[in-house]
Specification:
With 335 residues, this protein is an alpha/beta fold. It contains eleven helices and twelve strands. It has a five-stranded parallel beta sheet with strand order 2-1-3-4-5, sandwiched between helices. Strands 7-6-10-9-8 form a five-stranded antiparallel beta sheet, sandwiched between helices.
Length: 335
Amino acid sequence: MAGLLHVLVVEDSENDTSLLLEELRQKGYTPVHERVEHAAAMTSALERRNWDVVVSDYVMPEFSGPNALKLLREKKMDLPFIVVSGTYGEEAAVDMMKAGANDYIVKGNLSRLTPAIEREIEAAKNRKARAHAENSMRHLAAIVKSTDDAIYSLHLDGSVASWNHAAEKIFGYRAEEIIGRSISLLFPFDRRDELIDNMQIIRRGESVGRYETLRVRKDGQFIPVSQTVSPIKDELEKIIGASAIARDISARKREERERTELVQELTDALKQVKTLSGLLPICATCKRIRDDRGYWQLLESYIGSHTNATLTHGICPECLKKFKDENKMEKAKAA
């Protein structure tokens, strides 16, 4: 471990600070530092830059190691805090360690400084990594709890290890009812081979991609689901189980079925519709139509036998006007 090291030095002595920095240089570090000797300066320095470690004297004219440690912890900053004091006192060292200091070193024994800094920086990194992992786990747990998808895990023997709220809602089993029991409870009898095949794929370290299948609810109802299954590995990459995500697709399947039925109904209706096409011989005088057998039929009869239309009788505006005009002329002649 070597390279740049950002050190905030809480110290009233420039000479002691120089000795401290020289010790770090001899161990291969290039220290980037700032020296402060009262609370306001320390607060300002903490706000301006990210530091790797805080090294503090125990007693100073306007400040002290305990006060510097208290200021750091009040800001909830997880930085290594190492006391380097010119005067060694067991009671003071114990008090500082109880207050949260990471180490207490006598200025006459600075050879312990670099190992202490390295150790505490590594420990701080581990704490941050654990905190990040715990936050990620909490975030993931919140997602698993709130999602509408059934999310559950299995041991390699097919028994249920975990069961989220959506799984309870979709499959009807409460977590305490199904955890420890075989997931085969959800499989129709004619699909038990599917479970065997899936677990064989999982043992090979492979995932079962999304596919659609049927499951059985606690009440015996069959339910269509879209599902994926993935292997679970431990920190040594050993496969220890499987995780499954299942989505209830009943609504989608119902919509697809209704759409298919509608298309079929329309297709059947179109097949029943009779249409007229081609050349139709029609008499210019009586308006009769000659059918495909050579017989002349009334227009109404022909259309009625070749379509689903029903003709009603009426008179168009032009014919009505013509009829009225002719009627007037006949009345005039009669007069």
